[in-house]
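Backbones bend. Shown next:

***
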Amino acid sequence: MITAPPYYPEWQVGDGHTAWAWRRETFGAAGVVRFRLWVPAAVTPWARILHLLSFAASSLVPCLWQAARFRPDLIWAVEPTVMAAPAALLAARLCGARACLHVQDLEMEAACGLGLVQQPRLCRLLRRTYGWLVRRFDLVSTICTHMRARLRRFGVAEERLCLFPNWVDTDAIRPVPGPNRLRRELGLADHVIALYAGSMGEKHGLEVLVEVAERLRARPEIRQRPEAATFALPSRLAAILASGRPLVAQAESGELAAATRRCGILVPPGDARAMAEAVLELAADPARRTRLGAVARQLAEDHLQREAILARYEQRLLWLVSRRAIARQRNEAEHSARSVDRLLAQTPAHLRRG
């Protein structure tokens, strides 16, 4: 595995690591090599681009060297960052491996959609370049149907697309009867907690959260905790469902909207008043919270368990590799047959008859 030193979400390289030297580690049976990465002190759009480019540059030659050395059957890359995807694709082509890209976040769409890239021509160029790149991978997986549809619009063929959603360990994250130890330590055993479970970035609609907090300020029995995503991105959804708690979410479509309709209250995007009213509605109805929480837990157990998701994805990868192996065997057989035909053509006729 080729990766960077740990630095996110603090934007600071973790203790025991350095940004300017490579490091080899072992996790179980997996060998991990961490390469250099520049981490900016101030995360501006251009600093973020240079930050991602620094890893793409430092990992390029090692990626090619590892592919040439080990001759893997499959090379698997993750977006973000898409800037490292060309190296993975090139390495796969050089060593005859299958190339798979897993899209956890559509960086180009986020950059253009949020106005981080404001020039229309540059946005069109970035989108065309991205489409050209992803269409060349043998398999492109992603975390939800909405992103799968976006990738289809980039021209990725349906047979090359598959879902690999974020899973959850339903044994580690599970409902507990009564207040847990942390709630008792914080003096929150008798309160209803409204938890925001998400990142604090430009694309997360936090201005709505601020207004919701203001509307709930007058209700002391409802305590707000800002750590973690009722505006949840799909990456947060699995853990929320596994915890057996009802959702309050703003969405129009996709997995989040579908799940919330079954185990929570769905409100229009940007409507802080509706979200505050939904929180108050659930806070006043413990029986409904319990019922919706049970539905949420069942959804996690039925659809988001780690073992089931990994098993399905593993089968897809094995199928992808086996297709390459079958094609290679067919090509070798055809090459051998052509060699025999050439040999027979050069053999005198009376020897061929004998």
Notes: The chain has 13 helices and eleven strands. The chain has two domains: 2-166, 181-303.
